[in-house]
Amino acid sequence: MAPSPDYAAEQLKSQGNTHFKDGDYDAAEALYSQAIQKNSKNPLLFTNRANARLKLEKWEEVIDDCIRSIELMKENMKAFFYLAQAQLSINHPNEALSSALMAYELCTNSAQQTSNAATISALVLKCKKAKWDIRERDRIRRRADLLADLEGKLEHECKRDVDDIEARIESGDVGRSEGQEEKSERKQDFENKRNDLRTAFALSDPQNLERREVPDFLVDGITFEIMHDPVVTKNGRSYERATLIEHLKRSATDPLTREPLTIAELRPNIALKEACTEFMEVNNGWVYDW
């Protein structure tokens, strides 16, 4: 008697998981695809394949898998988490931020108390900073046509080199792992050159060309806004007082570490409050748009 489609799909999924753990993402993707052919109604199979495709940097395919998984199961934290990463990788920070915030909401409101909150929180902040960086880049470019031209050339050269590496991977001239490492190095080189270029221009016109950014330690891990009245927990993590108290009224746990936490255990973080106040005062002209 032939095994049922559901059973066959689970067997293929299990094999895919083994290859994924071994770092063989191509084989994992292929097995997850076979599992989906057996059972296309299982949303977890799509998230598994999306995760493998993330490792392979197949961003559009990741997005397709995540959307399909969410259609099958709306409260799908992993699908939103993977979706945000793919959207961010194709330079869609607005969409990525929305997806990351949804993943964070599902994670922090989960009755299962998952351990992914800190990782998802970091992704939310990364998406928000990417969204802000685009606005900053456009603002600076409007101030300096020459800077815009030079940045554009750097971006064009980086994209050309990355496309060339991808073509070599597809043709088999270089292994995927080696190629991915080479692409990462090329992107890092581009970012270093771009930052050096911006610094040089900022030094020449500091009032208008200095890059504006908010340090991570000033940002609340619940609302992702700059803190005004931070309090510190027993494990040393700081949050905005009002938002943390509201959270603790619903669940007596640290929102990121999931450790037990009560309102009575909170202490004012005076040094951080002073740093937040000073930052807000010095950057009053733009910081409210962040």
Automatic annotation (TrEMBL):
Residues 169-191 are annotated as: Disordered. SUPFAM superfamilies: RING/U-box, TPR-like. Pfam families: TPR_11 (PF13414), U-box (PF04564). GO terms for molecular function: peptidyl-prolyl cis-trans isomerase activity; protein-folding chaperone binding; ubiquitin protein ligase activity. It comes from the Eukaryota. PROSITE patterns: TPR, U_BOX. GO terms for biological process: cellular response to misfolded protein; positive regulation of proteolysis; proteasome-mediated ubiquitin-dependent protein catabolic process; protein polyubiquitination; protein quality control for misfolded or incompletely synthesized proteins. Keywords: Isomerase, Repeat, Rotamase, TPR repeat, Transferase, Ubl conjugation pathway. Residues 213-286 form the U-box domain. Coiled coil: none annotated. SMART domains: TPR, Ubox. TPR repeats lie at residues 9-42. GO terms for cellular component: cytoplasm. It catalyses: S-ubiquitinyl-[E2 ubiquitin-conjugating enzyme]-L-cysteine + [acceptor protein]-L-lysine = [E2 ubiquitin-conjugating enzyme]-L-cysteine + N(6)-ubiquitinyl-[acceptor protein]-L-lysine. PANTHER family: E3 UBIQUITIN-PROTEIN LIGASE CHIP (PTHR46803:SF2). This is U-box domain-containing protein.
